[in-house]
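Convert to structure. Protein one:
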Amino acid sequence: MSFEPRRVKLHELYREIEALGGGDTDPEGEAYNRAILDALSILRASGFGEGFYVDQREYENRGRLAREFAPVIGAALA
């Protein structure tokens, strides 16, 4: 199995990890599902999960860009 690297938002990563879990009842499958739940709990503890659609860094970048370009755009409109 080969994977291509790609950028994903954390809410997308959360959903993809969540989808990896399954209904395996053998000991190996249960350990795998516990690892999936652990990864999801780490994301939730960091403030991300289902329903969180803007990651913090993206939110901060939007705010920084808005502050940076607001004077330029305002001057161009005047």
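Protein two, convert as well:
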Amino acid sequence: MLFKLSVKNMKKSIRDYAIYFATLILGVAIFYIFNSLDSQQAMKVISSSAREIIQLLVELLSGLSVFVSFILGFLIVYANNFLIRRRKKEFGIYMTLGMGKGAISRILLTETVLIGLVSLAVGLLVGIFGAQFMSLLVVNMFDGVMDGYQFVFSRTAFFKTILYFGIIFLIVAVFQVVSLSRYRLIQLLSARNRNEQVKIKNPWLCFLVFLAAFGILGVQYYRVCNPENMHYREIPLILAAGALGTFLVFWSMSGFLLSGVQRSRKVYFKDLNAFVLRQFHSKINTTVFVMTVICLMLFMTISVLAGGLGLNYSFRQSLKELTPADVNFVSMDTSLLHTKSAARQLQDTGFDMGLLQEDYVEVSQYSTEKLTIYDTIEEQVREESQYDVPKNQEMIMKVSDYNKIAEFYGIQQAEVPEGTYAVVCDFDIIRELRDASLEKGQELTLEGKTYKPAYKECLQGFLQMYANHANVGIILLPDDQVQEAWRTQNFLAANYKAETRQEKEAIEEQVQIYGKQGFLVSTRIEIVETSGGLSAILTLIAIYLGIVFLISGAAILALKELSESTDNKERYEILRKIGADEKMIRRALFRQIALFFFLPLGVALVHSVFGLTFCAKILESVGKIESFRSILSTAAILVAVYGGYFFITYRGSCRIIKSR
């Protein structure tokens, strides 16, 4: 009998709380997908070094999954608390009919088990199929090629998901039993009739608190926008102060927002605005903490998604620009600098030069203690700089040598007339100093001869391939002004004589065997896999955490608003009786739900602007974050997920208040 009653209750509630079930299913699916990465087909078509990166990612995700399970557990416990509050009168009727709390607890336990089994089954099914699409994303991130399709099932992720969510549902069941045991019959029967106590706050006090919150947040915003004088140990304090400021914003807003709008009678008495604001005011008083938590979760969502995706876009674009050749060889044997070219030295190691295309380029690098980076930066620029200018020797190249490598790479070539010099630099921090010096006409003196700048700014370029813009500077001089005694390195850039990735990987093995004998070697495959792997790790973790935070915050708001709509059915019925039509009522409901959904989102967006600015400044030495595309992608995810929750909540609430 109790089992049949549990099934009946589940069927009756599934429509009202479809969002809850959908969130559980989505949470299970995401959990499975990200914990099955090491078992997917992508692992079979990417290189061994990329597989090692995936294994590292899986280890990181295993630790993060514990954190994620706490978030999802909090969501499920919080949601179940709403469900129990919604059904207090139902439980009171059961007890009036003679059913004991033990029997009611068994009903709740049965419902929890049924909900858990259904959500686990459907979520795992969605996750298993979703993991197949995740393989395509992983292959794309590591430039692999998937020749054929093979369905893959991860037993490890399957049982891990069951274990984690089984524990979560067990904890939920315990919470339900404990929560029910604390209620008396009179409390259960009168639950619907008890109004929420609204504490009237002094609007002037609230306004002062709002100013204080604004001040706290303003100080933190200023600090994160100027991180050069900040110690990393201060970051937790800044986050804590930001959380406090956010809490105070919502606390103060709950006191003066209503009185502020009431001063504008035209707005306050338009349509059902008075009703909407009263409803909002009565609820925000007791949901300040919840609104703060949701706002911070949305802030985390926007920051990790936009930051992670932006860094990924930047990495991938930079790697395309910074790896224009298949391989670079830099001779490290100084005894052979003047007697053997880089190609000849490489051939002497036993390497087959026939593996390289014939159009490879050889150039030389030079330096002298008579010309340092410090010497090339104008005095006033040095004094005004917040950075110490290094006194390392400058790298010097003949302009003809640089133009050969620039033509090979497909980048800008230089023109350096007699008596002039040019600077090639792409490392932003040093480039700013160099550009300022060139703009001021900084002259160089070398071997008694003075050189004027050929350009007013640095040329964008590089010699050796790196994963990021790391060229701090190359001084280009006319060929006849560079002395052979200054030569420090011989350099060779080449492309493999191969068409397919497999053929290139075979040549790569030969390069790693022979090329490391007296050479510093940089290869496109190695750079892309290493740096692309870091990018992939950051991106996948950002997506994982971002979506979990997003669905958790949206689901809590949705469940709360659905529960509020159920409690407010009588109020909306009164509105109908006094003459409000359905269009006005739906508009009022829309505005009320929109306030609860978009107020924390608005504050989170403001936080995110400064959070992303901080990330961009911290990571500027690695590369610029691609803001536009990442913000568009994040906005699309927010609209799809958060907007979807809002729309479904509104439609569900409309149906609830219309039901008799």
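The chain has a mean pLDDT of 81. Strands lie at 327-331, 361-366, 395-398, 420-424, 444-446, 449-453, 474-477, 487-494, 519-523.
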